[in-house]
From TrEMBL:
NCBIfam families: GTPase_YsxC, small_GTP
Name of the protein this chain belongs to: Probable GTP-binding protein EngB
This protein's encoding gene: engB
Statement: the UniProt record of this protein carries the keyword Disulfide bond: no
Upper lineage: Bacteria, Pseudomonadati, Aquificota, Aquificia, Aquificales
Xref: Gene3D superfamilies: P-loop containing nucleotide triphosphate hydrolases (3.40.50.300)
């Protein structure tokens, strides 16, 4: 039996280049996953041990990435299979949204899909250190048009939001 099957999963999803890798490194307090300016570097479901109680699960981003349609379709099937097979292990899904961009049509699809699958999730606005107050306000409004779940605010560069995310991961 795979060892990652015996602990809850906290899954990070979001569009390519939203800051998933940086957020994972911030939560772990060290560089565990590579950070790249090129979108689409995460190409498989990755299980990262997080303390004794949980696994962080990094999945490929959706949206822009310089990959073929065939590879993008393979990522979609891989994610569908992961969520179908291991959904009962999912403690939380963190849906990452860039605070400078707000909700994209692909984020709306993900919100609808999370609701359809009845998965517990939180919206995590990333890169708040690089966003203006107007951009953050606009991002919050765009999130609220589509969901009422809690919104968490993070900056991987400044460590903002780490304590709040850790509470959800480790409690």
């Amino acid at each position: 039996m795979e060892e990652w099957l015996d602990k809850p999963h906290v899954v990070l999803v979001g569009r390519s280049n939203v800051g998933k890798s940086s957020l994972i490194n911030m939560l772990l307090g060290k560089k565990v996953v590579a950070v790249s300016k090129d979108p689409g570097r995460t190409r498989r479901v990755t299980f990262i041990p997080f303390g004794e109680k949980v696994y962080l699960v990094d999945v490929p981003g959706y949206g822009y990435a310089r990959v073929s349609h065939r590879e993008r379709e393979a990522w979609r099937r891989m994610m569908e299979e992961y969520f179908s097979r291991y959904g009962e292990l999912i403690k939380w899904v963190f849906l990452l949204i860039d605070s400078r961009v707000g909700v994209t049509p692909l984020d709306v699809q993900m919100i609808e899909w999370l609701h359809y699958r009845k998965l517990p999730y939180k919206v995590v606005l990333t890169k708040v250190d690089a966003a203006t107050q107007d951009e953050i306000s606009s991002a919050i409004k765009s999130v609220r048009k589509h969901t009422t779940v809690e919104i968490l605010f993070t900056s991987s560069r400044e460590g903002k939001g780490k304590k709040e995310l850790l509470q959800y991961c480790l409690d």
